[in-house]
Design goal:
This protein is α+β, with helices and mostly antiparallel strands. It is built from 14 helices and 14 strands. It comes from Canna indica (Indian-shot).
């Protein structure tokens, strides 16, 4: 029996307490499995993390924050952490299972939600965040991908890896770590000044409400600097079907000044949020929610795209930052990006080795290393937040052997050569 089969059999029953089932998903540092409790038969989700990898990649702090935050919280709309178990090499987070997927998938399937359905989910989100803030936890990465749905279609806030706890506040009572996903992060978070975590979460709520009602992001630009200019000028447009009351609420949430932005506590009493929230109207809104009319072609083309990032603009990242989906699909043929926790020298060594195997010659120009093969592969490595770095590989024209749009370049072979140097690719 090979080692893989032994590992699989070993993990069929975990520590005599849970029977592991199918793989639900995987991330850069963890795998999530469906499991069944042997004591009561309850279905749970178990996140499996490699302990040495957490240490080597500097992700221990993010993991400990996630556990500390979730242990403080017990709310109907916050994903519940049942227990934490560990062996010498693995850590297991036993969590509530949310089989309904995430809210982004729900919106993407329908194009957008009706206002009653959007209000139902939004009310559950605001209720959960109000509870978290009252217990000193600011989420700091509120986005549809982190809002899961249970079997009954109720929302569950998840992924507290970037959460802030009271002991992270400085003497001024504010947070100072730039983190989150740029399309949903409040503008004050990236200014490198102190900010209120609860007010930052309120901004993210405004972006989410806009997405629920329109199916698009309010601020969506391939350049972060331009995107933040639009944010400060409040340059966004509502489609005609959004009600005036919902528009006014979003306007108050997407206020670039956190001092005048409506907070979560005031949001709980807002008339739009309290309107038609009886159980009957909630169930009725789900049952009768018909697909919306098709989005205009220009809107559909930018559906759920997120900003492309360059080396100069990587100002809002932390070691636990989620980079997936932040890059423009239109550039994927000529540019590839990945994150890594290896040293720059090791990354470049592996790129040079991989390029050599693919028939590329290596040359150095003005301190930038390039792979030469009819076309030029220029490589740029930028530190995001130690030990995480972002690597950009760009296919450029060179000489008479012009591979133009990059379709003929063997990206897949290069990816295979880089192997374990890469944490995650972000080119799709």
């Amino acid at each position: 029996m090979d080692s893989q089969s032994k590992t699989k059999r070993c993990y069929e029953v975990l520590l005599g307490r849970y029977e592991l089932g199918r793989l639900l998903g995987r991330g850069t540092f963890a795998k999530v499995y469906l499991a069944r409790s042997l004591s009561d038969g309850a279905t749970v989700a178990i996140k499996v993390l490699d302990k040495p990898e957490l240490v080597d990649t500097g992700m221990c702090r993010s993991f400990l924050t996630e556990v500390a935050a979730m242990r403080r919280l017990s709310h109907p709309h916050v994903l519940k952490l049942h227990e934490v178990m560990a062996t010498r090499s693995k850590i297991f987070l036993v969590m509530e299972h949310a089989p309904g997927g995430d809210l982004l998938v729900r919106v993407a399937r329908r194009g957008r939600l009706s206002e009653p359905s959007a209000r139902r989910y939004f009310h559950q989100l605001v209720s959960a965040l109000h509870y978290c803030h009252a217990r000193g936890v600011a989420h700091r990465d509120v986005k549809p991908q982190n809002l899961l749905l249970d079997r009954a279609g109720n929302l569950k806030v998840s992924d507290f890896g970037l959460a802030a706890l009271p002991d992270q506040l400085r003497g001024d009572g504010r947070l100072h770590t730039a983190c989150g996903t740029p399309a949903y992060a409040a503008p004050e978070v990236v200014r490198r000044r102190g900010y209120d975590g609860a007010k930052a979460d309120a901004w993210s709520c405004g972006v989410i409400l806009f997405v629920l009602l329109t199916g698009t992001l309010p601020f969506d630009d391939a350049n972060l600097a331009l995107m933040y200019r639009k944010i400060h000028k409040r340059e966004y447009e509502f489609p005609p079907w959004v009600s005036s009351q919902a528009r006014r609420l979003i306007f108050r949430l997407l206020d670039p000044n956190p001092e005048t932005r409506i907070g979560i506590s005031a949001l709980m009493e807002h008339p739009w949020l309290k309107r038609s929230l009886s159980l009957d109207s909630q169930l009725g809104s789900i049952a009768t929610d018909s697909p919306p009319p098709p989005l205009p072609p220009a809107t559909r083309a930018h559906h759920f795209t997120t900003p492309t990032m360059n080396a100069f603009e990587i100002i809002s990242l932390s070691s636990g930052f989620d980079l997936s989906g932040l890059f423009d699909d239109g550039k994927s043929k000529k540019e590839k990006r990945f994150t890594s926790t290896q040293s720059v020298d090791k990354i470049m060594e592996r790129i040079e080795e991989g390029g050599g195997k693919l028939g590329c010659l290596v040359e150095t120009r003005k301190e930038a290393r390039r792979l030469r093969w009819g076309s030029i592969l220029s490589v740029e490595v930028s530190e995001v937040a130690a030990p995480l770095v972002l690597v950009e590989i760009r296919l450029e024209q060179y000489g008479s052997d012009d591979r133009g749009d990059g379709e003929e370049f063997c990206w897949d072979e290069l990816k295979a050569e880089l192997g374990d140097v890469v944490c995650a690719w972000h080119d799709s």
